[in-house]
Amino acid sequence: MSYTGPDFDPPQPEHEHSGRSGRSGRPRRWPAVAGVALVSGALLGWLVYEATASSDSPSGGTAAASASSGSPSASGAGKSPHSSRSAVPSASAGDDGKGAGAGSGGPAASGPLKGKVVVIDPGHNPGNFQHTAEINRQVDIGTNRKECDTTGTSTNAGYTEARFTLDVAHRLRTLLEQQGATVKLTHDNGSPAWGPCVDERARIGNEAHADAAISIHADGSAPGNRGFHVILPAAVHSGSADTRPIAAASKKLGTMIAGDFVRVTDEPPSNYLGGGTGLVTREDLGGLNLSTVPKVFIECGNMRDSTDAARLTSGDWRQKAAEGISEGIVSFLRES
User: Fold this and answer.
1) What is the pLDDT of residues 79-91, one digit of tens each?
2) In whole angstroms, what is the distance from residue 25 CA to residue 74 CA?
3) At CA 219, angle to CA 213 and CA 221, rounded to 5?
4) Alpha helices in the chain, H assignment, sequence order
5) pLDDT tens readout for residues 172-225
6) How many CB atoms lie within 10 A of CB 152?
7) DSSP 150-188
8) 133 touches 101 (CB < 8 A)
9) SS3 for 291?
10) 3-class SS at 262?
């Protein structure tokens, strides 16, 4: 996601880096993230690989438009756990999210997640850029007020974050439904035409009584900044926000997702946020502040870095991204 706007004031990278011109940068403290031991095994494997791998080839760019919207989904056909790597076809960068895993609408399949509810929030909406007045409207995020939503970012070639997030959301929905979960999307395939606002995205998960919720994004940072990070809610108690009841469970959910994501996708943890853990805690995101169910965000990579962009625009890699997220969610729900 672009860190410009509503839910996303720009965080400060942990080292000096040029290329953030035009972005405001007030200092932000990052609370220490405990429980990193759960992901250390997966991250250690990546670090060994990184020590012998060639360096990245970054490229530059600026932010653009974003995602798609819609209605809750239902379920799919029964498959054995984690057997869907070849079950869902890959797609090109031009996939608008209406293809692979676009959902069925039938009853949830039998499986280990039968009775579990997962809410997937594809970041942004492709119609947002046509509704600037609406998305700039201030909404309550618990601790203060911010804009309803943003347009998101894009690769230098114009592949938008919104298309990416909806495509991954569809793939993830299929994987979870195959294990019996009931899956709801905060928006889908152009409905609604913009948004929903960040407060409504949280409300959808709350009203669904989700056992787990995840917001899918891709970052719009400077070239050379690469890797994924999972954003955890801080224990916020201010105004209408009180994440204290869900902070620990959200941390467990995010830690499990990070461990499986790095293992399945081979995407490194962020080299500019999170101190190499792939985990960041924030208290300024309305989608987390207003949640009453375990919830995290994932930034799957940096769309402005050429190495990450090549992955994000690959249908095969997006399938791996969905699998990594799915396996983390499944592990969390099995222990819940």
Assistant:
1) 333 333 333 334 4
2) 41
3) 155
4) 37-52, 132-135, 161-178, 198-207, 244-265, 286-289, 306-312, 315-335
5) 999 999 999 999 999 998 899 999 999 999 999 999 999 999 999 999 999 999
6) 31
7) ----B-TT--BHHHHHHHHHHHHHHHHHHTT-EEEES-B
8) no
9) coil
10) helix
Ordered by where they begin, the domains of the chain are: 37-84+96-335 (3.40.630.40)
Token look-up 């000096």 returns 16
Q: Which among 53, 57, 8 is positioned nearest to 28, based on CA atoms?
A: 8
Which tokens go with 252?
A: 């467990």
CB 331 within 8 A of CB 179: no
Token pair belonging to 234:
């801080």
pTM over 0.70? The answer is yes
Classify residue 28 by its DSSP letter. Answer: -
- Nearest in space to 144 (alpha carbons), one of 295, 9, 296: 9
Active site residues: 299
Contact 129, 65 (CB under 8 A): yes
Q: Tell me the one-letter amino acid at 90.
A: S
144 and 151 Cβ atoms separated by less than 8 Å: no
Residue 238 to residue 265: CA distance in whole angstroms: 37
